[in-house]
Design brief:
11 helices, single chain, eight-stranded mixed sheet, disordered N terminus, globular, four-stranded antiparallel sheet, 473 residues, 28% helix, alpha+beta, Rossmann fold, Immunoglobulin-like
């Protein structure tokens, strides 16, 4: 479509602006992370975008004490988010899921607030789960002074003053970050509050999430602009098939992403037998071993260090991967781990690398040995997979404004110029060493409104190993 200025500027001269020449490729996200897991707080079955670990705590609550041997498995979402942000993540799409008994809904903690005539309304925690069981609610009514409702959760305190129940309930609904006031009859708004009953507990938290619940959470993320995926607490052997199905579905829908999963054990032979055998994919990264980290739930204890399993190491790696440009390899990059649960020998490292396992090792800190996927074909390196995904996304973005325009040689030439400019920028950024590009259409395709974009990409290959020979005399 062109814009024509009909006013004559110079005798016999008119100006015509063809909008196709102004089309370019806008910014492309490369570090958006998604995570699915269990928590004791926060909206259930909704995508929440987080920008910091503080937001994660505010939204999904603190994690429980680390005890993987307990009958009820530990909550996974907040602890995984801790590792993601520790690794450098900055934009995270989180989904809380829960494994609940049939016909059971997760309850929110509730307090009955009474006047002299009995209960008149309820305080209900803003999100379901056990987090609000720790809230202390008190009503005081000093003689000759306004009534006061106080809510305390750790260091957070909320205070509401009013002449009657209606005024306090309105303030709670307007300002409280913890609860809402529900069920107040208009006839009771003028009553004076006298007490708050003991709470009815919230929950259950549904901590024992399975692949079924994870699949439900992943379905919510299919349409989101995700680049990297992590699963809270569940290893590749348990969740690998579900994640691979999600990766295939999103790739077919033009929403490419890479999943970073943890191994089910630190033992190399078992990793190869169980986790590697669970599936190979150019979009799957398998991380081993686990990492050592501080457990914030161990309040007052001298030693807070715990050994976290592979899935939490995967969260740390996912956060680190999000900080790198697509063409920058994770090989030999430092990760912010305090330690490893196992330190592999050279022979064990070689055994795992030959089976396409992403190995963490100790060398001037904790580092990634080699940035590889589980693929045994052309996309062994994570950086190569990300470069190609980046190019595909850019071509989609650059082509989209041309849909609905004339399908003639002029417009196709403009489309090629747009895409050529984008791919040239990738060469300048050292993502590609070279490329070929062609935009074509047969007469039948012109009539049908179709154009074919053909690309051949030559991604930049990172230097994984450098051999140094020194002759000293």
């Amino acid at each position: 479509m062109s814009e024509t200025i009909a006013e004559m500027v110079l005798p016999g001269t008119y100006i015509e602006v063809r909008a196709e020449g102004l089309i370019g490729v806008s910014g492309i996200s490369t570090g958006n992370i998604a995570v699915v897991g269990t928590a004791n707080r926060g909206p259930l079955g909704q995508v929440v975008v987080l920008g910091s670990y503080g937001e994660a705590l505010e939204t999904f609550g603190a994690y429980d004490r680390w005890n993987p041997a307990a009958a009820t498995p530990p909550l996974t979402l907040t602890r995984t988010l801790e590792q993601i942000f520790k690794g450098g993540g900055s934009s995270v799409y989180a989904v809380r899921v829960a494994n609940l008994p049939p016909a059971t809904e997760m309850a929110s903690t509730t307090w009955a607030v009474s006047s002299a005539g009995g209960a008149i309304f309820d305080l209900v925690a803003r999100t379901p789960g056990t987090w609000a069981d720790a809230i202390v609610a008190e009503v005081t009514a000093p003689a000759g002074e306004p009534q006061v409702l106080e809510l305390t959760l750790g260091r957070l305190k909320e205070r509401f003053e009013g002449a009657n129940a209606g005024a306090i309930a309105d303030q709670v609904n307007e300002r409280s970050r913890l609860v809402t006031a529900d069920g107040l009859d208009p006839a009771d708004r003028a009553d004076e509050l006298t007490a708050v009953a003991a709470p009815t507990a919230g929950g259950p938290n549904g901590a024992a999430a399975t692949s079924t619940e994870i699949a439900t959470g992943l379905a919510l993320l299919e349409s989101e602009p995700i680049n990297i995926l992590a699963i809270g607490g569940l290893d590749a052997n348990t969740i690998g098939a579900t994640v691979l199905a999600h990766l295939e579905a999103t790739e077919n829908a033009g929403r490419e992403r890479i999943a970073v999963l943890g191994a089910s054990t630190d033992t190399p032979a078992d990793i190869i037998t169980n986790d590697v055998a669970a599936g190979s994919s150019p979009r799957l990264v398998l991380v081993a071993p686990g990492v050592v980290a501080d457990d914030a739930a161990r309040v007052g204890e001298a030693d807070k260090r715990v050994k976290l399993t592979g899935p939490y190491a995967a969260g740390l790696v996912a956060g680190r991967l999000s900080t790198l440009a697509p063409h920058v390899s994770l090989t030999n990059k430092a990760v912010a781990a305090d330690g490893l649960t196992t330190y592999y020998t050279r022979a064990q490292q070689k055994q795992l690398l030959l089976n396409q396992v992403f190995v963490l090792f100790s060398n001037l800190g904790i580092r990634a040995l080699k940035g590889i996927t589980t693929d045994t074909g052309a996309f062994r390196q994570i950086s190569v997979r990300r470069i190609v995904d980046y190019a595909k996304t850019g071509v989609r973005i650059g082509s989209n404004p041309y849909i609905g325009r004339l399908n003639n040689s002029r417009v196709r030439s403009a489309l090629k110029a747009t895409l050529d400019g984008f791919l040239s920028s990738m060469v300048l950024a050292e993502m590609l060493t070279a490329y070929t590009l062609d935009v074509s259409a047969t007469r039948r395709q012109e009539i049908a409104g179709e154009a074919v974009v053909t690309m051949t990409l030559q991604p930049t290959f990172s230097i994984d190993y450098i051999r140094v020979i020194m002759n000293l005399e």
